[in-house]
Amino acid sequence: MTSNAADTTPKPPVVAVLGTGIMGAAMARSLLRSGIEVRAWNRTTAKAAPLAADGATVTDTAEEAVRGTDVVLTMLKDGPTVTAALTAASAGLRPGQILLQSSTVGLEAADALGRRAAELGLVHLDAPVSGTRQPAEEGALTVFVAGPSAVRARVEPVLDAIGRRTVWVGEEPGAATRLKLVANTWVINLVNNIAECLDLAQGLGVDPRIFLDAMKGGPLDSGYLQGKSAALLAGDLTPSFTLSNALKDTRLILDAARASGVRLDLVEASADRFARAEAAGHGAEDMIATYYAGRAPERDGD
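Above: the chain's sequence. Below: its structure in token form.
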């Protein structure tokens, strides 16, 4: 029997992705795999161009990307970059569009972006993500979200496409960014801890593979320890998250800590290591390249 009833299944939202670096491109592909139409824009168009082969509409301007879309997802370097992208897109925006702001920007910028979104008539969701290249490619990120609960149903198809888990932090602007800074503190100190263990192994003449085997399967083991160490030892510094971006995030954490009266000695040390490794030319490599900030210098005649 044929039914004449109208199809009431909600149509998937159309999403503009502003920023198609390592994370933004992977998130765009996750959206496309879920059957969501994507308009992609990047300041350097060549970085967005490969997404056309996956089914995205690649635009020359941010204004073209956002025009007529339901959700604007920003995945850019920092607060000023997001602000500049929204300004460039402003003529194509309309009141009521959802801004899913997923860049890690820090507390001050998160507040400023909330005000800018209000000026533009956008529904602002503070929505940074936890995870790097691989989970982004697999649609397995954890998304922290703060914003009006009234739009949850509208944005859920997007969140389900890019993430394995969504943590709704509350409706208060900036609440998700605060959680992201805490989560990043854990990751940043962890990666530097791994690097220092490998540095000390080198200095003491200990085969790092023996150290990793000694940890394997025990209560102090982790997939992160084994994976990051294996990549470094294989000489594969293909970035899942670049060292320069890790340094940027570390500085945002320290800014937030100072503003809240908290002292973070380990994060201060992590910032120091990242800065030394960046100065040595490792900024575009994976953040485990912080290892090179602590390697014993070669002695004359070695």
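The longest helix spans residues 175-204.
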